[in-house]
Fold:
Amino acid sequence: MAPRRFNNPFHGVVDMISEMNRISDSMSSLESGQAGDRERGYSDAWSPPTDILARGTDLVLRCEIAGVRQEDVTVSFNDGILSVSGERHRDENDVVYYSSERFMGTFRRRISLPEGIGEEDIEASYDEGLLEITVRGGANARGPKRIAVFKRASKHSPPN
Structure:
């Protein structure tokens, strides 16, 4: 039996700024080869690559954050927004890098979850550089509602 296909509840709701920063950083690091040269703060945090998938009725988010210690990762949920943040630290100070392509410093990723999800529906685990967040029942949630757009009446239209 073929797996049931779900509508994508994340269509159009992934944090666009984080995604654009991640793409821009990836492109510039390919050109310069200096992705990890400067530490980043919260305002210009790097964004970890993230997969969003359905496993049965659950929604699963997987963030790739290799080299980040578990105690340096924070997962929070507020007003329908799931936030993943933390920091990847540089090695010892006496190390000389010949090439540095991994981002260092603060990272963050914010994702809007479907309506009706509560913190009791969310569970996170971390192993071997992969943070996995399970949102129970999230794959069955409705996607964004489309709003009808009507033509605005002209101020200069003749009376009926």
About this structure: The chain has a mean pLDDT of 80. The longest helix spans residues 16-32. Helices lie at 16-32. The beta strands are 50-55, 58-64, 73-78, 81-88, 105-112, 122-127, 130-135.
